[in-house]
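[step 3/7] inverse_fold.run input=structure_tokens len=240
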């Protein structure tokens, strides 16, 4: 089957709740689509995410149970679970620093990377220490005072950084779903699940956060619950 264009994939994508058990999907193609997910834009290129690809029948059954056995989980051929890993910020900073150093070939290159190294070795660590509640609170007070006299970055608390992590992971999840649609496959992102039980099933550390659970398969005719509805574009579009 010819891969769909971006516009065709966007038009094809619907939240499919019931998948056809007679139409299996290719696990390697799903894995490829997860690789495409990792090319998404991400805050400071930290890539604070992981993707759990659920293919075994027993694991699918456990995950579906903790998604309230909703049809999009219960009938899925496979499941993909994007996970936010804010706790890996130190490792991901170092990975960026190592990558920057690996591209240094000349003394001139050495001069060019100073700004990038300052960003990753000083500015970003200071920000992500805000994932600790008290440090984040102190930083919030400081930026609020600074903001009285200059432009200031204000999203510095643990709660703010949680939002940043989920935004980046959601962008990757959208990449995944578009890539799946391009393959002619269907998906459904779900937020209805028991996060604590699901974390235990996946063996996740305490600080990991599940962004969503995505059902994957090929739609049955009754798997889409109605016509697509969107608020009129003129009501959501503003040109300034």
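[step 3/7] decode complete -> sequence:
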């Amino acid at each position: 089957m010819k891969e769909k264009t971006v516009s065709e994939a966007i038009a094809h994508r619907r939240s499919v709740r019931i998948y056809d058990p007679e139409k299996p999907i290719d696990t390697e193609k799903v894995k490829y689509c997860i690789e495409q997910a990792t090319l998404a834009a991400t805050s400071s290129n930290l890539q604070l995410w992981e993707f759990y690809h659920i293919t075994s029948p027993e694991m699918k059954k456990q995950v579906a149970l903790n998604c309230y056995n909703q049809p999009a989980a219960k009938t899925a051929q496979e499941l993909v679970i994007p996970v936010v890993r804010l706790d890996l910020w130190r490792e991901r900073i170092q990975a960026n620093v190592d990558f920057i150093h690996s591209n240094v070939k000349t003394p001139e290159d050495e001069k060019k990377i100073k700004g990038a190294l300052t960003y990753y070795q000083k500015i970003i660590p200071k920000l992500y220490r805000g994932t600790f509640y008290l440090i984040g609170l102190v930083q919030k007070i400081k930026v609020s005072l600074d903001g009285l006299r200059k432009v200031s970055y204000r999203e510095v608390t643990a709660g703010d950084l949680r939002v940043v992590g989920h935004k980046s992971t959601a962008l990757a999840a959208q990449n995944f779903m578009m890539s799946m649609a391009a393959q002619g496959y269907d998906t459904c992102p779900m937020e209805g699940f028991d996060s604590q039980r699901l974390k235990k099933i996946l063996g996740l550390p305490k600080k990991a956060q599940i962004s969503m659970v995505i059902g994957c398969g090929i739609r049955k005719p009754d798997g889409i619950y109605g016509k697509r509805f969107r608020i009129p574009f003129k009501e959501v579009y503003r040109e300034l």
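[step 4/7] annotate
Residues 33 and 180 are 6 Å apart (CA to CA).
The chain has two domains: 6-86+168-236, 89-159.
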